[in-house]
Predict the 3D structure of the following.
Amino acid sequence: METGVGSTPKTDMKVRPLDTPEPPWAPPPRAGRGIVTVLVAIGALAVGLLVGSGVRDGATATPLTKLGLAAEERGLASAIDGLDDALLVVATNGGRAMDVVMWPPSGALSLRPAPVAWSAVTIDGLPFEDFAAFDSSGRYVALAAPVAAESTAVLMAGRLEEQVVVASRVTGYAWHVSEPHQLAIAIEEDDVTSVEVMLGAPMSVMPVTELQPGAKLRAWGPWGFLTSQDGFLALSSVEFGVEGEFLGAGREVIVVATDGGVGVFPVGHRGGPSTSLAFDGHTAAVESETGRIAVGGPEGLLVVTAEGEPVVELEHPFVERLDWSSDGRFIVFADRVDVFILDLETGEVTPTGLGPTEAVMFRPPAG
């Protein structure tokens, strides 16, 4: 094991430039079918009434078990040279609770209890794997509490400091990929699939459109709503039709797990993907400035240029969540045990000691 920043140990994980792609691996399973209603929440979020076992009544902070870097109680910038962003994490804290963690560039990390109890329950048919997500600004967070008896979830959302119930019988949700404070929520209600918009404070609601019955909400961006149905992905506003499983999106591209590995599809494309990767991808993130794409999967992390040229491969088991730093130099990723920071310039991989998580994000200094 080599030594990295200060006395913080670095892992022996193998990071290397890619010369040739790895052989194709099996694609992830397809999403199930379901009936959904979509709501869009913008700005302030309202309190709803709910009875659900996943909600923590009068939640209090559970002491976070911090190891390694996190236990040093110093700013992230002093621990990781060249990193100026804040690190946001929804920690599951060893399966005891969900807690929203912010680690600023300077100063010790802060923890706020989330009003949602973490659960290892897997609900068949839910169109999302992540039960927590940050909005594009890093100021808001959404948390889903599964209700196993109904095969749905209760959704809470709000600022990092406080979240409230916004919907029950939720089967999916998606923050807008680029516009802050805008949240789409998929709700099962009387076999009717409609889209409504909630605006401002005080909030007003107006109908927008309807989705196809049986479609599931997967993402939302300037290209409209991305839905899945019978193994196919479709957009609500532009021509788009792809067979596969949604992995991630940017303003101009959508990353999909296909039978051949991973495909990068320009919005409004006709024909095949602009880039194909022989990789078993389970999650992806698009870097906004250069269009580089990071894909995580069961055996590691792959980084390619916007044109699909390989940059770096990291061998690491079960990369399930990831995000780019604002300058494109760092990638934060999470496996089933901890959160790690990869420096693309040096190849160093730093374990943070924050433990297992449901969401990770780098927030720019001005975020």
